Amino acid sequence: MNYYRITSIEDENFPKLHRLLQEVFPPEEVLAYELWREPLQDPTIHVCVALQGDEAVGATEYRYYPKLRVAMTDFTIIGRHGLGVGRFLLRSREKELTRLAQESGTEPIGMFAEIYDPYRTEHTFGGVNPMNPIVRREVLSHIGYKKLDLSYVHPSWDLEGGAVSGLDLGFLPKQEEMSEISGALAAEFLETYYSAIEKKPQEWYSMVEKLKQRKTVALLEL
Asked: Which residues 6+ apart lie within 8 Å of 166 measured at CB?
């Protein structure tokens, strides 16, 4: 299996990635094909596919913010079961994030991820069993992810300004004993991460303002 980074929508592997996104995620979570042009050219955004021969069997997107000392996993897709795709993507991503932190001379605090709550979503995720939100949530819990103690929404990636719910904001602390993070850190991360979306719902703005007023936010079990 080959871990391959995509940096252009002209790359022959990009249509395979976008097809995976459309098959697995709800429409409001998928950026339109042409709108990927600029993000892929951003050197801080890493979009990688797992290639088995000519087939894209998985994908992940992530980034590292040296100033905040946190990473973000935008998505992880397992397109085929029985190949070890999830572990392959996890280990490959870990190596790259370690390299990015070392190059920036920073020590990471942890990594954010938006995690579907299986009891609040009816989406089937393309019928791919490893992508089932119950399975994914349990795996992420085993890895060490926690969830922030807040009612979470995020702006829709269809850029229509809607609020997307049914997810938790997860965090994988570098130090396992960490039980809380700074509210200011969470707020600054969200403002930075979603700066690419101009039209955001009022629910999101209210959530971020409340975070700024909280000294800490508890990390709860998934």
From this structure: 116, 117, 120, 121
Evaluate whether 220 touches 183 at the Cβ level (below 8 Å). Answer: no
Could you report the per-residue pLDDT of 83-127, keeping only the tens digit for each? 999 999 999 999 999 999 999 999 999 999 999 998 887 777 877
Q: 187 by DSSP, 3-state: which?
A: helix
Closest-CA residue to 70 (of 187, 165, 150): 187
With beta carbons less than 8 A apart as the criterion, state whether 73 and 112 touch: yes
Cβ atoms 47, 41 nearer than 8 A: no
Which tokens go with 137?
A: 């949530």
What CATH number matches the domain at 2-221, 3.30.110.70, 3.40.630.30, 3.90.1170.50, 3.30.2310.20? 3.40.630.30
d(CA 132, CA 5): 25
The 10s digit of each residue's pLDDT in 172-191 is 999 989 999 999 999 999 99
The DSSP secondary-structure symbol of 157 reads T
Q: How many CB atoms lie within 10 A of CB 68?
A: 18
pLDDT at 158: 85
- The amino acid at residue 41 is Q
Nearest CA among 38, 115, 42, 109 for reference residue 71: 109
Residue 80's identity, in one-letter code, is R
Closest among 102, 124, 132, 205 to 163, alpha carbons compared:
205
